[in-house]
Amino acid sequence: MDIIIQSMCAFFATITFSIMFNTPKRELIFCGIAGGVGWLVYSIALKFGLSNMLSNFFGTLFIAYLSRFFAVIRKNPMSVFLISGIITLVPGAGIYNTVLNIIMNNNKNAAFYGLETVKVACAIAFGIIVILALPSFLFDFNLKHRKKDNTI
Length: 152
Known about the structure:
The chain is mostly helical. It has one domain (about 1-140). The protein contains 6 helices and no strands. It has helices at about 1-20, 30-45, 50-75, 80-85, 90-105, 105-130. Helix 3 packs antiparallel against helix 4 (about 80-85). The chain starts with a helix and ends in a 20-residue tail after the last helix.
């Protein structure tokens, strides 16, 4: 039940960020779905004992897939859904803790938080790259416009 509430909060947080990002009003719900589902997958992966880095990777896979899916269906750029949806997984606390420990001259903790933040950022980037590397026909759901190949 806790995961569902968190996912709903991620849904609304994504919509709020989308409004600040000046996303078209008709796309706000879809951005929220991408962010909420991404957080849900991230939370479930953590519950199964995966690391923070792997959980972010799987959450990003779902956000990027949904973003690409919505981009085709809604005829908008993928970035409209991806940038808004990914905001829930961005390691803001890790960046904050890294800078705080640098300022406090606590190099050991700064290195720890910095490395964790870089690993999460790389997992997010890699998740996006994996989805972008998929061929476009996997996202072409409009069967009327597909060419029929009748050759043998």
